[in-house]
Amino acid sequence: xxxxxxxxxxxxxxxxxxxxxxxxxxxxxxxxxxxxxxxxxxxxxxxxxxxxxxxxxxxxxxxxxxxxxxxxxxxxxxxxxxxxxxxxxxxxxxxxxxxxxxxxxxxxxxxxxxxxxxxxxxxxxxxxxxxxxxxxxxxxxxxxxx
Length: 146
What we know:
Glutaredoxin, five-stranded mixed beta sheet, globular
């Protein structure tokens, strides 16, 4: 499956940045309301980011979409460059283009990448973890999320 950049479909509404941010946040809230989520902040050209996104792909296959939500968020960089970098990974979950408000809320605005937020059902951020880790590590994080 190809990488999806959800916020791109909202770019026609970019004349109202707050509306764009509201749609971005609303989409995430809808998905994380009922199950744990792993949200990884990445940037183009980041080799550890690619490893982390691949590990999350494994988590999705092991646990299934009914047990975990997965998102990548482009923290910095050119959207086209990001698409080209991620296309060979054939990810089955969306990569969102992060708004400044969203990046700041997650503490990712000035952070190194990959930075992954472990989010409990209902949206509470349990942990922010810097670095790429294997699939089994993330499966454990999701399984033990309250």
